[in-house]
Amino acid sequence: MKSYTHRLDRFISQNSPHSISDTRLLVAQKRIIVDGLVAHSTHQKVTQFTPVELDGRCLQNNKPIYIMLHKPQGIVSATKDSKHKTVLDLIDHPQKEQLHIVGRLDFNTTGLVLLTNDGAWSRQISLPQTKLAKVYEVTLSKPLTDEYIQVFKQGIYFGYEDITTKPADLEILSDYKARLSLVEGKYHQVKRMFGFFQNEVLALHRVSVGNISVDGLESGQYKEFSID
C-alpha cells in the first residue's frame, strides 16, 4: 500500500458519492468525523492511517503494520514469484497483501527483512540522509587481515558507478568471519567490497537495520513490532 496525504474534500470525493464541493456542507453539518473528532475544515489532511467516518459509516480505518522476518536461504525478497517461495509466503497475517518490502536481500542471503504497509516510514529509513546502519555477518573464502579494516574505513572505489563507498566499520571475528556495518546499500555492495581483495563471500547474514535486530528469531520466523 502506498502512503498518501489528501485534503479532506478530495478524500471524501474519492471514497463516497459526494463531490469535492459537497464536502463544505458536510463539514458544516458536522457529518464527518476525522480521527475521532468532528471535521472542522475541507482542507484537513488525511493520511492512509487517519480514521474517517461519514454519517456514521467508516470510510477508512487502516492500521500501520511493521513486521520483521528472519529470511532463510533460498527465499526470494519479493511479494510474488512464479518459481520460488517468497518472504510473503512465510507470513500468516490477514493484511499481508498490503505489505511491501523495505530493503531486499539476495536469494541466498539470510537475516533481517522488514515489511510494512507504511510507505512514509519505509522511505524514511531508506533515505541515504538517514544514515541508518545495516549490520551484516560475513563468511569469507580467504583469511582476513587488519588491512581490510583500514580499507573499508577509507571507502572502496567502484569504477562502474564511478563512486567511492562511504566509510564502513569492519570487525574481524575470526580468520574467515567478520561483522560489517554500512550506512548505504549499493548493488551487491558487501560482496563487491570484499571482492576488492579477491575474497569471495561464502555466506552473508543481515543482523540488524538501525535498532531493529533479527536476534531471537529463528530462521523463517517473523513478528510484528512497533515503531513508537
UniProtKB/TrEMBL annotation:
<dbReference type="InterPro" id="IPR000748">
    <property type="entry name" value="PsdUridine_synth_RsuA/RluB/E/F"/>
</dbReference>
<dbReference type="Pfam" id="PF00849">
    <property type="entry name" value="PseudoU_synth_2"/>
</dbReference>
<dbReference type="InterPro" id="IPR050343">
    <property type="entry name" value="RsuA_PseudoU_synthase"/>
</dbReference>
<keyword id="KW-0698">rRNA processing</keyword>
<comment type="function">
    <text>Responsible for synthesis of pseudouridine from uracil-516 in 16S ribosomal RNA.</text>
</comment>
<dbReference type="InterPro" id="IPR020103">
    <property type="entry name" value="PsdUridine_synth_cat_dom_sf"/>
</dbReference>
<feature type="domain" description="Pseudouridine synthase RsuA/RluA-like">
    <location>
        <begin position="66"/>
        <end position="194"/>
    </location>
</feature>
<comment type="similarity">
    <text>Belongs to the pseudouridine synthase RsuA family.</text>
</comment>
<keyword id="KW-0694">RNA-binding</keyword>
<dbReference type="GO" id="GO:0006364">
    <property type="term" value="P:rRNA processing"/>
</dbReference>
<keyword id="KW-0413">Isomerase</keyword>
<dbReference type="InterPro" id="IPR018496">
    <property type="entry name" value="PsdUridine_synth_RsuA/RluB_CS"/>
</dbReference>
<dbReference type="GO" id="GO:0001522">
    <property type="term" value="P:pseudouridine synthesis"/>
</dbReference>
<dbReference type="InterPro" id="IPR006145">
    <property type="entry name" value="PsdUridine_synth_RsuA/RluA"/>
</dbReference>
<protein>
    <recommendedName>
        <fullName>Pseudouridine synthase</fullName>
        <ecNumber>5.4.99.-</ecNumber>
    </recommendedName>
</protein>
<dbReference type="InterPro" id="IPR020094">
    <property type="entry name" value="TruA/RsuA/RluB/E/F_N"/>
</dbReference>
<dbReference type="GO" id="GO:0160136">
    <property type="term" value="F:16S rRNA pseudouridine(516) synthase activity"/>
</dbReference>
<dbReference type="InterPro" id="IPR036986">
    <property type="entry name" value="S4_RNA-bd_sf"/>
</dbReference>
<dbReference type="InterPro" id="IPR042092">
    <property type="entry name" value="PsdUridine_s_RsuA/RluB/E/F_cat"/>
</dbReference>
<dbReference type="GO" id="GO:0003723">
    <property type="term" value="F:RNA binding"/>
</dbReference>
